[in-house]
Amino acid sequence: MPINTDLTATDNAFWLIVAECFGVEMPTFQGEGPSCGRPALFIRLSRCNLTCIKCDTKYTWDWSKYDPHKESTKKTVAELAAWATSSPVELVVITGGEPLLQQARLVPLVEALLAAGKRVEFETNGTIAPVPKLLVDGVRFNVSPKLASFGAEEAKSVVPAVLEAFVASGRAVFKFVASSVADLNRIAELADAHQLTPVWVMPEGTTADAITATTRALADAVAARRWHFTTRLHVLAFTDARGR
After folding, report:
1. 77 in any annotated domain
2. Is the pTM of this model over 0.85?
3. Using alpha carbons only, what angle is made at residue 57 by residues 223 and 174, rounded to the nearest 5 degrees?
4. ∠ CA 191-183-38 to the nearest 5 degrees?
5. Reduced to 3 states, what is the DSSP secondary structure of residue 122?
6. pLDDT of 68-127, one tens digit each?
C-alpha cells in the first residue's frame, strides 16, 4: 500500500493523542523484553482502557491525579514520523497507556516508519486485537496481560479472544509483570489455556533494589519453566526517570 505523503496538521484524521516522545534528543534503550538493551525511540500515547493500581504511567490516564491538558498533546502522523526519522536509531517503540486505542490512526504512522527503514514494537496490554494493516513485516507486539496482583480486574484485563488473535498473528511475545512465585503459577495457567508463547517474565519494581530483590526471588522458578526473563533496564540505568 502506498504511503500517504500529504498528511497535514489540519487533518484531524491523522492526529494522535501523545503523552511524550523521547530518545532522539537524549538517547535511550528499550528497557524490557526481547529488545532489552537496544537503542530505541519511544512514542508514548495517552489514554488507557484499564486502571491498574500498580501502573507506572498513570499520567496517561488517571485524571484524578493528573491534568490531561498538561500531560497530553495532539500530534500529527507527519510530525511524529519526521521526529522519528530524524534519528538513525532503527527501533521505534509505540507504547502508552494503551496504544491500540488509537490504532486506526497508527496505521499511516507505522507505514511511514517502515518505509523509512524503521522497526516497530508495540507495548500493549493485550485487550484490543490489532487491525490487519498492523500485522506486517517489521512490526512486533509485546503483549503484557495484567494480573490481579498488579491491581487489575482480570475480567477486563484478560481477554481470551484477543490473546488468541495475537497468538495467531505470529507477531507477538507475551510479557508478564510478576512479583511472586504465585504470579508465575497464574502466568502458567494463562499460557496453558491460551497457548501463549514465547513467555517473558519481568520483575515488578520501580527501584533498582526492588527489581534486584524480585529478580532473585523469581529466577529459579522462571528458569525451571524454561521461560525468558527480562529486567527493567531503564529503571536500573536511569532510576525510572521520565523521558529515559
Report:
1. yes
2. yes
3. 30
4. 75
5. strand
6. 999 999 999 999 999 999 999 999 999 999 999 999 999 999 999 999 999 999 999 999
Contact between residue 125 and residue 50 where contact means Cβ atoms under 8 Å apart? yes
Q: Angle of helix 160-169 relative to helix 181-194, nearest 10 degrees? A: 70
- CATH number for the domain spanning 150: value is 3.20.20.70
Residues 107, 100 contacting (CB under 8 angstroms): no
Phi, psi of 17 (to 5 degrees): -90, 115
> What are residue 29's DSSP bridge partners?
39
The reply to whether 4 falls in a domain is no
* Domain-embedded: residue 9: no
Single-letter amino acid code for the residue at 84: A
Instruction: Determine phi and psi for 74, rounding to 5 degrees.
Output: -95, 130
- CA nearest to 111, candidates 83, 141, 78, 144: 78
Q: Whole-angstrom Cα distance, residue 173 to residue 142?
A: 5
97 cis-preceded (ω within 30 degrees of 0): yes
Domain count, the chain: 1
Q: Using CA atoms, how far apart are residues 86 and 209, in angstroms rounded to an integer?
A: 36
